[in-house]
Amino acid sequence: FEVSGYKIARVKHEHYPGMVKEPGSLAKGFIVFNVDEAAFQNIQKWEGNQYTPQVIKAMYQGKEIELTTYIWNEKSRLEGNWNNDDYRSLHMNECLNICIPRDFDR
Q: Which end of the chain has a smaller Cβ tally under 10 Å, C or N?
């Protein structure tokens, strides 16, 4: 997905990102589809109180859609830019297997 007015950056000293409002920025990410209620509750526990779930409008395959994302609550702990490719290859499967331990669509 792509969403205007947001930025994704690395959380200092961690291997995960935080997304925050940032006028003039463009955030790019990935979407996990068909998340059932049990998996959503696992995601809520995983994300903890450092993130706030929020419905936003984003562009996906040329169309505007609404999706739920997690907005980082501590902007001062963010640094640099985020690399989705590195995350996908190094950490994403571990996180998804913990939160959504079943087949899923990405």
A: C
Rounded distance between C-alpha atoms, residue 72 and residue 92, angstroms: 18
Please write the tens of the pLDDT for every residue from 1-42: 999 999 999 899 887 889 999 999 999 988 888 888 888 888
- pLDDT tens digits for range 49-101: 899 999 999 999 999 999 999 999 999 999 988 877 766 666 677 766 666 65
> What is the separation of C-alpha 38 from the centre of its chain, rounded to a whole number of angstroms?
18
Whether the Cβ atoms of residue 42 and residue 104 lie closer than 8 Å to each other: no
User: What is the secondary structure of 29-90 as a DSSP string?
Assistant: ----BS--HHHHHHHHHHHGGGEEEEEEEEEETTEEEEEEEEEES-GGGEES---HHHHIII
Host H or E run for residue 1: none
Contacts of 99 (CB under 8 A, 6+ apart): 39, 42, 43, 46
